[in-house]
Amino acid sequence: MKAAVVTAFDSPPRYSEIPAPIPGDRNEILVDVIAAGLHPRVRSQADGSHYTSTGVLPLVPGIDGIGRDSEGGLRYFILDDTNHGSMAEQTVIDTRRSFPLPEHADTIAVAAALNPAMASWMALRRRIDFSLGQRVLILGATGSSGRMAVQVARRLGAGQIVAAARNADLLEALPGLGATDTAQLDDGDQLGRAAGEVDVVLDFLWGEPSANAMISVLTARPDRGKPLSWIQIGSVAGPTAPIPSAALRSSRLQIVGSGQGSLERGDYLEELPQLVREIADGQFVIDAKPMPLAEIGRIWTTPGGTRRIVITPAARRS
Q1: Are strands 28-37 and 14-17 parallel, antiparallel or unpaired?
Q2: 121 with 252, same domain?
Q3: Within its chain, how far is the Cα of 304 from the centroid?
Q4: Same domain, residue pair 97 and 141
Q5: pLDDT digits (tens, 9 = 90+) for 285-296
Q6: CA gap 192, 177 in Å, rounded
Q7: For the purposes of burial, counting CB atoms within 10 Å of the CB of 197, is it exposed (0-12), middle (13-18) or buried (19 or more)?
Q8: 87 in a domain, yes or no?
Q9: Which of 6, 21, 137, 266 is most buried (most C-beta within 10 Å)?
Q10: CA-CA distance, 103 to 26, in Å (whole number)?
């Protein structure tokens, strides 16, 4: 069968022939892959930079997707840490980490939106006690996950949604997705004015930009005793952040992580069916572009912008 295969962490995957994987126990089944999102998490998997990387090659990238089982049913699946990911004509899934989809489901939309949407959905639903009307700041709001986070916060009842990023042109589109305020990330005064009273921060950036934003937000807070939950989700701006100790001592700030390891399998399986229904019902604006698996090498090196690329298998399997 054909697959995207990584043989070196500094090179894009190649479209190659490999043996089909074989299920290992009674909870595993082989599925034909219909669609698999090219998420930032997949790119970090393929270049060995993700914190879960084992450094073992070769590997087939891909962490989730839509598959068709032997009975013809569609299933959304999340893969365990494995070197045989979803960017292949077939993959092995654990049925305990999957759930059925209705036959009419838009597989491209689900594959494109579920991973970026679940980042903020799980953070707000499972990592803190989020309440209707609370105010949310989103750092890195113009990326794919950030744009979905604006919509997720709106769907979950946020009273204020402050979208912060560097690209002013892309920020202009976010009120149309639900943002009530926007702020330039590198303008500390503007960010502080817009977000000084938020209750929750969804941080897709980390690194120095997040450290600077933290100082701006905390400095602007009229009530330092008001709790602020800072949820660290992504690290596109850097793996470490130089946070001053005073930021932790002079305010009721709690920093929590949300991602693989801090969330349990049951958390995902309980939450994702509802999120899929939201996507299927058209509650989210989704900018997706399906691309054939055979073009993986070219796709990998082409900037995707705000669109989420969805890799599809050969037409004969769809």
Answers
A1: unpaired
A2: yes
A3: 15
A4: no
A5: 998 999 999 999
A6: 22
A7: middle
A8: yes
A9: 137
A10: 25
